[in-house]
Specification:
Elements (H helix, E strand, L loop, with lengths): L4 H4 L24 E10 L2 E11 L4 E6 L5 H9 L6 E6 L2 E2 L10 E4 L11 H11 L4 H14 L15 H13 L5 E5 L7 H18 L2 E6 L2 H7 L2 E6 L2 E6 L1 H6 L4 H6 L4 E10 L4 E5 L4 E5 L10 E6 L5 E3 L9 E11 L3 E8 L4 E7 L5 H4 L5 E5 L5 E4 L2
Parallel strand pairs: 3-8, 3-9, 6-7, 7-8
Antiparallel strand pairs: 1-2, 1-4, 4-5, 9-10, 11-12, 11-14, 12-13, 14-20, 15-19, 16-17, 16-19, 17-18
Helix pairs in contact: 3-4, 3-5, 4-5
This protein binds adenosine-5'-diphosphate (ADP) and magnesium ion (MG).
């Protein structure tokens, strides 16, 4: 069976920037970038649909969405390569309408950034500054500084063809940072790198961003990358921002089935709301074969059909009955993937529904206790699931 990355590593990626002061939670804070009802229509196709977003200084904000969801178009409007069909973009208090890319406090690093092949790394990085007429000694100082930061100082004399893909990517990053833009836009910056290099570079990107205090807006289609990098994530679908939040909020409290399924692995259980009080909800789910209890109300219509999202790692699997009928499903283990630190179980419920469960392997013989064809109970806590009405 296939296994997602979140399952392999045991837990979903945690926000690396969690220790930062969280300006976006401060109602008095002024956003650095303000996107107000921005729409972009190409011919008769709406690529970006009425997007409003506020991004704060020193954030590393990720626009996350599938291919064609409008991420690059939104980024290009921030950079000034496209004009919104309607709506406003305000950067650092200035309305960007009619302001060309080179007059914006913004720099963009492209996915396939073309370095000059005949110039050395340091000449490539210093090119823009020299062209602006900066004194040679100052250019040298700035270039040296930024190359040290991206760990390319020792390769300053090389030409692009003498570098690996990851090294070229760092040169491109240095080149986009050397002018000290207030806002750096990165479109799939790590897309060309292999997995291991991408992970290393993610951490470096965070360090550089913290050191320079530049605001980053990063476009990615890779949910794990977004989880690792971001202070906050804006999830895009069909041109719209469907949810904005810190990585753990998006993971723990998705606001729709789309977001729940896009971020990480999730079990979806259909059901009907039978009790909806302020402090609890009961959902009858024939698919789960049990009543589902939650510890809060959802204020929905009577008998509303809902989906309950239940992450695989929130489920406790055991051969012993947990002692309650509620939040307890019964089934048979069909498949087990042993991942070392954890195991992934595929369980066929007696109702026919397939459920995925992940469990950490606390003790060495954990795996041997549960095996194929075992009848098991799947139980979860009252605060472990999320009800989704859309
Ligand atoms: P993403 O970066 O999320 O993959 P894009 O922003 O590049 O998506 O594109 C969103 C949609 O807009 C796609 O369907 C794409 O084909 C369309 N699109 C992008 N640029 C243009 C353009 N210049 N003319 C027409 N359609 C475009
Ligand atoms: Mg794109």
């Amino acid at each position: 069976m296939t296994t997602t990355e979140a399952e392999k590593t045991g837990t979903p990626a945690q926000p690396q920037n969690a220790a930062k002061p969280v300006v976006w939670r401060d109602p008095a804070a002024k956003p650095f970038v303000k996107i107000e009802g921005v729409t972009k229509v190409f011919d008769d196709f709406t690529a970006v649909d009425n997007v409003s977003l506020e991004i704060y200084k020193t954030e590393l904000f990720c626009l996350l969405g599938g291919s064609g969801s409008g991420k690059s178009t939104l980024l290009r409007m921030l950079a000034g390569f496209e004009e919104p069909t309607s709506g406003r973009i305000i950067i650092d208090g200035v309305d960007m309408a009619g302001i060309p890319p080179w007059e914006r406090p913004v720099n963009m690093m492209f996915q396939s950034y073309a370095l000059f092949p005949h110039l050395t790394v340091e000449k490539n990085v210093g090119f823009g500054l020299r062209r602006e007429g900066m004194a040679d000694s100052e250019v040298k100082k700035r270039v040296k500084e930024i190359l040290e930061m991206v760990q390319m100082g020792h390769l300053a004399k090389r030409k692009p063809h003498q570098l690996s893909g990851g090294q070229r990517q760092r040169v491109a990053l240095a080149r986009s940072l050397v002018k000290r833009p207030k806002l750096l836009l990165l479109d799939e910056p790590l897309g060309a790198l292999d997995k291991k290099l991408r992970e290393e570079t993610q951490f470096e990107l965070i360090n550089i961003q913290e050191e320079l205090g530049v605001t980053f807006v990063v476009v990615t289609h890779d949910q794990e990358e977004a989880m690792t990098l971001s202070t906050r994530i804006g999830v895009m679908n069909q041109g719209e921002i469907v949810q904005v939040g810190e990585p753990h909020e998006i993971y723990e409290y998705p606001n729709s089935r789309f977001v729940a399924q896009f971020i990480g692995s999730v079990n979806m259980l259909e059901g009907t709301v039978v009790v909806d009080e302020t402090d609890h909800v009961i959902i009858d789910s024939p698919e789960a074969g049990c009543m589902i209890h939650l510890d809060h109300g959802i204020s929905c219509a009577p008998n509303q059909e809902v989906h309950v999202a239940l992450r695989p790692e929130k489920i406790i699997i055991s051969k012993e009955h947990p002692g309650t009928q509620d939040n307890c499903m019964q089934g048979t283990i069909e498949d087990i993937a042993y991942m070392g630190n954890m195991s992934v179980y595929r369980v066929r419920l007696n109702t026919g529904k397939e459920i995925r469960v992940t469990q950490p392997n606390f003790v060495r013989d954990m795996g041997s206790r549960l095996t194929w064809n075992d009848n098991v109970y799947l139980h979860w806590q009252i605060d472990s699931s999320v009800v989704l009405t859309v």
